[in-house]
Amino acid sequence: MVPTWAVCGVLAIAGVAAASEPMRIADVQALPRSEVAGKPVVIRGGVVTWIKMPDRSRLTIQDGDRGMWITTTKPWPKSPAVWRGSEETLATLAVGDELEIEGILDPGGFAPKLLAFDLRVVGRREIPAALPVDDDRFFTGADECCRVDVTGVVQGVNSDEGHWLLLLERGTRRFEARIPQAGHPDPDVSLVDARVRLVGSAIAAFNARGELLYPRVVVMDAADVQVVESPPCPPFEARFVPLADIATFSPEPVGAHRLRTRGTVNYVFSGGFYLQAGPAGIRVETADGTPVAVNDQVEVAGFLDRRGHAAGLHHARVRVVGRGTADEPFAIAPADVARLFNDARQGGTAATPGDYDGCLVTFAARLADVERTPSGGRFLLAADGVDADVMARMDQPTFAQLETIRPGSRVQVTGLLQIEAETPSAVWSELAVTHFMVGLRSAADVRVLQAASWWTPRRLTALAATLAAVFAGSLAWVALLRRQVKAQAARILHEMQSRRDAVVEFQATLRERSRLAANLHDTVLQTLAGVLLQLDLCRRSVSAPASHDAGEQLDVARRMLRHAAVDLRGSVWALRTQPQAGRSFSESLAAVVHHFAGPAGTPGADRVQLRIEGEPFELPKFVAGNLLLVVQEAIRNACHHAEAARVDVAVRFDSAEKSVTVTVHDDGPGFVVATAAGPEQGHFGLQGMRERIANLGGRFEIASASGAGTTITARVAVGAHDSELDADADALRPTGAAGAL
Known about the structure:
about 30% strand; CATH 2.40.50.200; alpha+beta; CATH 2.40.50.140; five-stranded mixed barrel
């Protein structure tokens, strides 16, 4: 729903005319509330009866027996200003002016009101005569914004922006009046306890639900306030009533004037205190702020207050008449007080000797809970035999001393007893106690009879929650550990399978290479040897000079065959070479390097160099074998394909990490690794080296560039289960495969 003030602001800014036909106040009040909000109107015929001075922001108008509230400023702080009329007209406005007002209707908090855009004075009229108060209309708000003539006894006075705000009682009903301060310089003497006659506009004080709380009369002129009956006597000469007899039956009406009583102060709060005499106690709200202390003997003169279920005094004058000793509190449990209360309401009698409301009592109870409040704190007490809640209230200093008492402790509580009672219907006999409130005066009012066990329900709950959390965490940890173990087992299984595959592949390769080597040795090499022998015989058989050319050709053939035999023998050696011939990895690697370097003293004998770093340790045979094959392939590529002048082989043993790193570097022309020939082009050397190292779970790297040589690096770590794999490999090793050509 769009707020009324928003509609008002839009219409005011747009300059929309309020309405085509003027309306009377009675017409507006006859509208359903749903049609009032935001309705633009022109109201004619109302006469000004009251103006809020000095800002003239509000006024009341009356037309016959109907009145209405007019606002000339924005109604809420966040709403836009709606007034756009003449400030001069507003400044000269006076009571008795007849107006025509343009504006927007607002439902208001109680009765409809008008948010004025503009107003015009259309004449002068006699102010409507004040209506004699009809209590039924006045106390229900039916005379809203009408001039009324009402009398009442003034029971209190407060200052309000240059005015006096009076609290009055008419019969047993209360209302307020706002009057000018002129003519009443000392209202406490001239007005309080006096019966006065007021003429002014009746307006409603209401709550947030739009319900009337009490009427208020706003008086424009000091002459409209008349004292018709002066205070009957000074405050402390008022009729004396014993404390226990206040508000009880009397054949003479008490009326609205002061009464006087006496007792002992047993509890002090901000703005008043409790007064006790025997088993009777009442609440006293003071008017002058006279300081009193607990155990003071005082005399009070105040007005009867019937707003609660028990009577009290308000706007009371106080004087201390003596200092007494603390009366012993009544030793009575809340259950016994509730029984007295219930017996009285069910039997239609007064509780005997009293209901102890407003008296000091002491009783034992169990502390159920401790609660901090903005003003201090309170204890929730579990008292035996009573269904109503029992709470002890205390200020901040007292609570600071008592909040360490653990719930579950049994305590002796001493304090002011206050009874809260409600009735679900209008039948008095159904009035029931809803809860007891005990006002503590100091920390001494609570004594621990039996301290609570350390194992309170809260701590047990916390322990159970902690154990549940630990159990849940343990289950989660076990599940996580089980998953990690499963993952670790899978990783180890994969690693072992990979290494086992490497062993099987290595042994299968050795068997195949040995078979091929044997075949080459027994076939090709033997054939070539036979050809070479035949060529030698042919040369010796040729003796004719004419065969000189043939001899040269035969020499060439012989040289070619010898070269082929050397190459083929090298290939056979490469196929038959094994690291497992009773030698260590370092010794086997030295043999491979020696083979490619050639005998000492021959050209290129220092072409391939070997360097070993770190402390050598024994390698599993399949690891050493795969590394030798990789090194052998790398040196072969450097010598035969790159035609390198120098090849450096470096081996670094890392005993701490149980790893071996082999590096083969040549000074050949190099190549672009990304475009190097691979299996698709029929070249399997580099791919084979990568796969061997990958099967061992190692790292293989190639670094090369045109004109910068080539570096091949292979790093392999010895696995925890490699010794078992090595033992399995012995069973697969081919018979007679050891040795070299």
